[in-house]
Write a structure and sequence with these properties.
116 residues; alpha+beta; Trna Endonuclease, Chain: A, domain 1; four-stranded mixed beta sheet; globular
Length: 116
């Protein structure tokens, strides 16, 4: 993790001490599909942070956009769309918010339900 991501990790832990914060989670751990062409779209992609509750339910996907993301708007939108279609809520931050801002921005409840 970059120093910027490390600071965000610490801030997420402060904001949500009752939850776990996972770092650098592969999309393939969050999204599944039997079709190779669809799987290849998210193969080798990772998200910055995943906030989970004590039952391992995903509460939120958190992306921290540094200045390098200014030229990646379309790519970020595509990534968000994949995760949204899988039922996840993605929160993007360009700077490290305060604990209060994080708690206000990210509801502390499950955002994804498994569908059988």
């Amino acid at each position: 993790m970059t120093p910027f991501e490390q600071k965000m990790f610490t801030q997420l832990k402060r904001a949500f001490p009752e939850n776990d914060v996972l770092c650098q989670v592969a999309f393939s751990a969050l999204i599944t599909n039997d079709h190779y062409k669809i799987r290849s779209r998210f193969n080798r992609k990772v998200t910055d942070f995943v906030l989970i509750n004590s039952e391992c339910d995903v509460i939120a996907i958190i992306e921290l956009d540094d200045p390098s993301h200014l030229n990646k708007v379309a790519e970020d939108q595509f990534r968000d769309k994949m995760l949204n279609e899988a039922g996840y809520t993605v929160y993007r931050f360009c700077s490290i918010p305060s604990v209060q801002e994080l708690r206000k921005s990210i509801p502390n409840k499950k955002s994804y339900k498994w569908v059988s």
